[in-house]
Amino acid sequence: MTTWLIAAPLLVAGCLIGVWLRRRRPSTVLRAVLAVNGLLLVGALVLLVLATTAPEAAAAGLPQAAAATTSSASGAALLGAAIAVAGSSIGAAIAVAYTGSAALAAMSERPEIFGRAMVIVGLAEGIAIYGLIVSVILIGRA
Length: 142
Known about the structure:
The chain has helices at 2-24, 26-53, 64-109, 114-141.
């Protein structure tokens, strides 16, 4: 909680500086955003390397072999949950993009089909919910 109390004003200040710079020099803001994204990518890669090469802590009361098997299985379940959420979210985004644009085009010609169009867009968003459900099940078993 303390971290957020410290970070929130810094984030607000950063956003205000970004808005001010965008009005003054738009190309500078683009370079800054790309630099921040690059730093975040490098940080994520460092954390990934540290997480995959860190020694596994032995579980209390389990033999060493059983602890390694349990840790490996739970890691695979968590990785599967992440892949399920990412894949379903990307698929839902693509589906909503196509169905949403088609729904808007159809509603511009015939406004009375608003309800049907929103049902189709809602079904496309359901794909992400299915991925979330799968990830909750996998995390529960991890």
